[in-house]
Amino acid sequence: MILPDIAATEAVGARLAGIVRPGDVITLSGPLGAGKTSVARGLLAALGLAGEAPSPSFAIVQPYDLPEVRLPVWHVDLYRLDDPDEVDELGLEDERGDGLLLVEWPERAGEGAWPEALALTLWIEPDGARRLTVVVPEAWEARWPT
What we know:
By secondary structure, the protein is an alpha/beta fold. 22% of the residues lie in helices and 23% in strands.
């Protein structure tokens, strides 16, 4: 799927907000500046977040809870992690049962992390548009495409 601008990238996130369920994981991969946080911002806005969501790059984990959003979300950016073992220290699996785990840079968690996740990858095209590819696991097949 080609996303011509930031509005189209955020719209992908907004559409995802209509199909997410408690316990879901969505991973966002791609190079710096590809639009991972834009997808996350669109999703969070559609879940009711007022104002712009900050990138969790420095905090690593940015939680959003009721009533701020209609479904609790843990927005995670693993870019600064050096070792997959550091992911366990974040306690992500303990929190995701009641909400959504939204993970940027999931490859930093090691191979095989979150095999049940809806995996989105964004690439920057030569003209500045974004190319989105999606790996849809079995648990998401009935809900995808949005």
